[in-house]
Design a protein that fits this description.
Elements: H1 2-8, H2 22-41, E1 45-46, E2 52-54, H3 55-62, H4 67-72, E3 74-77, E4 84-87, H5 92-101, E5 110-119, E6 131-140, H6 146-162, E7 168-173, H7 177-192, H8 200-205, H9 210-214, H10 222-226, H11 237-252, E8 258-259, E9 271-278, E10 287-293, H12 297-300, E11 308-314, H13 315-324, E12 336-340, H14 343-358, E13 363-365, H15 376-385, E14 390-394, H16 396-400, E15 403-408, E16 421-424, H17 428-435
Parallel strand pairs: 1-5, 7-8, 12-13, 12-14
Antiparallel strand pairs: 2-4, 3-4, 5-6, 6-11, 7-9, 9-10, 10-11, 14-15, 15-16
Helix pairs in contact: 2-6, 6-11
The structure holds adenosine-5'-triphosphate and magnesium ion (MG).
Length: 450
């Protein structure tokens, strides 16, 4: 009895991990295509690392006293071999691990990018999920500030191409390690004066990671954080020159920014340049993405020392902004839906569909949904619902006469003389080439046979 009930129980997805349904994937693909085109335009190469990494990779890079490592990681022991594994909460550490492991920097610096899901055990809410997606760049082996400016320009171009105007850039410099140490001493003395007012997290971090207290989201601590000693006042000439160099490159490229002395980023590996892209349009989850330099990380993870910087953007938050802007995507239905009836028509329909795909058209061929034959009327309903531009109809009559009927389904009737017309099979390709703008070149491959 209980077993029967158990079988019928409907399973659901995991909380905070969303299905992205076909009604939404058009928007995702539009975003992915836009960002990929830009990354290629700047000469970045795609890298794909696994979802799972050894847990110490993240503990060592992100830092023990951070939100991610303290409370957000999906970590577990592989019951088959006892290994400590973690589902990546971010991807910089993994890209650096991979670059070291495969000696990617052996012939010079590398410009890399990635896209994919990340996992953090947070409280799900708008713009905050347990599986979410980031696109990111990592520029490994560059000293900056030119590369810092370049990766910021990439983001600005992305906002422009997506038509997003409400994203601001905030900048800061975290300087070198010894500069942060001098600031840290003063910051602790300052924060100790307010120790009674600090919240649990901030008290915990007072001596382990006081810089973190500055980016607290607790409204009650905003004044304390705002008046704290500023790291920027502790920067030496070299750090300041780097920071000013970046600012002038950004200004020369018409990128506006504000300097936010409290911007420290949520991960420990950053130094020198840090930045965030923020918007007021998404409520509490207003940070679209961020990044900065991490000059010590490669060495810290066991690689030959090399300087580096990068950013990561949260895709769900960007898509939310696109929806806020009422982005309308053009119809993404196929060019042609082929309806047919009878055995001969079916065989011919297959062959016509293949020929049309050969010339670059997107074609849906009607396939049986059960064993009964489906009326033309029902097939035409499916054709309409599919979003296709044209229906091609193959009945007995058409088959006898070596013809097809073509019916425009949406917004393109004016191109054809009348609503439906007959065309000989042998001139179908030429006919469609006239009425449909066939993409000049479909992606092709070639093999280098030895
Ligand atoms: P937040 O302060 O909002 O928690 P974060 O500093 O933890 O962000 P980063 O580690 O800098 O975020 O990640 C870069 C971007 O990834 C964020 O700006 C955001 O757009 C996105 N992001 C981070 N965590 C989530 C999440 N749980 N759900 C959706 N997007 C996220
Ligand atoms: Mg976070």
């Amino acid at each position: 009895m209980t077993e029967k009930k158990h079988k019928l129980e409907r399973l659901t997805g995991v909380k905070g991990m969303n299905d992205i349904l076909p009604s939404d994937t058009g928007l995702w693909e539009f975003f992915e295509n836009t960002v990929k085109a830009i990354l290629h335009a700047y000469g970045y190469q795609n890298i794909r690392t696994p979802i799972l990494e050894h847990t110490p990779l993240f503990r060592r890079s992100i830092g023990e006293v951070t939100d991610i490592v303290e409370k957000e990681m999906y970590s577990f022991v592989d019951s088959l071999n006892g290994k400590q594994l973690t589902m990546r909460p971010e991807n910089t550490a993994a890209v650096v691990r991979s670059a070291i492991e495969h000696n990617l920097l052996y012939d010079g610096p590398k410009r890399l990018w990635y896209i994919g899901p990340m996992f953090r055990h947070e409280r799900p809410q708008r713009g905050r999920y347990r599986q979410f997606h980031q696109v990111g760049v990592e520029a490994l082996g560059f000293v900056g500030p030119d590369i810092d400016a370049e990766i910021i320009l990439i983001c600005q171009r992305l906002w422009n191409n997506l038509g997003l105007r409400d994203i601001r850039l905030e900048l800061n410099s975290l300087g070198h390690k010894h500069e942060r140490a001098a600031h840290r001493d003063q910051l602790i003395i300052y924060l100790e004066r307010y120790i009674k007012l600090l919240d649990h997290d901030s008290k915990n971090r007072l001596y382990t990671n006081p810089l973190r207290v500055l980016d607290t989201k607790n409204p009650a601590l905003q004044d304390i954080a705002a008046n704290a000693p500023k790291l920027i006042d502790f920067l030496g000439d070299e750090s300041l020159a780097h920071f000013e160099g970046l600012q002038s490159l950004l200004s020369a490229n018409n990128i506006s920014f504000t300097i936010n002395p409290r911007l420290v980023r949520g991960l420990d590996y950053y130094n020198m340049t840090v930045f965030e892209w923020v918007t007021n349009k998404l409520g509490a989850q207003g940070t679209i993405g961020g990044g900065g330099r991490y000059d010590l990380l490669i060495k810290q993870l066991g690689g030959k020392p090399a300087l580096a910087c990068g950013w990561a953007l949260g895709i769900e938050r960007i898509l939310e902004l696109l929806r806020e802007n009422n982005l309308v995507l053009s119809n993404d239905g196929c060019d042609v839906y082929i309806v047919h009836q009878g055995e001969t028509a079916r065989i011919r329909a297959f062959s016509i569909a293949e020929q049309l795909r050969n010339i670059g058209l997107d074609v849906i061929l009607h396939c049986s949904v059960d064993n009964a034959s489906v009326s033309f009327k029902s097939q035409m309903k499916l054709a309409n619902a599919s979003g296709a531009t044209y229906a091609i109809i193959l009945g007995d009559n058409e088959v006898w006469q070596d013809e097809v009927s073509i019916k425009p389904l949406r917004g393109n009737r004016e191109i054809m003389d009348n609503a439906q017309q007959r065309v000989p099979v042998k001139s179908l390709v030429d006919f469609l080439a006239k009425v449909i703008a066939i993409p000049q070149k479909k992606e092709g491959i070639s093999y280098n046979h030895k």
